[in-house]
What we know:
The longest helix has 19 residues. The protein is of the alpha+beta class and 191 residues long. Helix 1 packs across helix 2. The protein has four helices and eight strands. It folds into two domains: 102 residues, Glycoprotein, Type 4 Pilin (2-Layer Sandwich); 73 residues, Dna Ligase, domain 1, CATH 3.30.1490. The protein is globular, with a radius of gyration of 17 Å. A four-stranded antiparallel beta sheet has the order 2-1-3-8, covered by helices on one side. It has a four-stranded antiparallel beta sheet with strand order 4-7-5-6, with helices on one face.
Amino acid sequence: MELNEHERFQLLQLARESIRRRLLDAHELTPTRGEFPDDKFWQDQGVFVTLTEHGELRGCIGTIMPVSPLIQAVASNAISAAFNDPRFEPVEEAEFANLRIELSLLSVPAELAFSSLADLESKLATTHPGVILQRGVYQATFLPQVWEQLPDVRAFLEALCRKAGLRTESLSPPGLRVFTYTALAFSEDAQ
Length: 191
C-alpha cells in the first residue's frame, strides 16, 4: 500500500487520538469518509501499533491478517497496545506526551517452503522479512523491524521460538511452518 506523508500523518494522529480519548474516558473515535476519503483507508489491512517511551518498548499489539478496515485496525490496535499488552501496565495519562507511535501495515503472509534449518536461515538472511513461526498450536511473529535488534538469523529464530513458547530444537522440519510478510512502517519520529 502506498501512502503519502499526509496520509501517514493522519493515521498516526488517529492512533494518538484513540489513546488520548481512552485516557480521558471519552467516546471512541468514529472516523468518517470526510476525514478519510480515499478507499485505501476502508480496505481491510493487517496493522501493528508499536509504542515506545524514551526509546523503550511500551506496548505492541496488532493483527497479522487483514480482518478490518485500515482506520479501524489502527484505532483499535493503538488502544490495545496502550492498555492491553499483557507485558506492560496500562499507559497512564502522565506518560502520554512521551509516547512515540509506530505503525506497521502488513502484506498478507505467505508460507515459506524450506528443506532444512540451513535452507530457512539462508532464505531469511537475504530478505529480512516479518516472520511468523508456527508449530502446532504455538505461534509467534516478529515484525521486519526486529532484524535491527537481532541481525543474526539464528539468534532471530531462537528468540522467535522462545516468544512462541517453543524450545529452539523446534526449529527443524517436519512440523514447523514459517510464513513471511513485508511491512510499510512509519513513525511519529519520522514526521
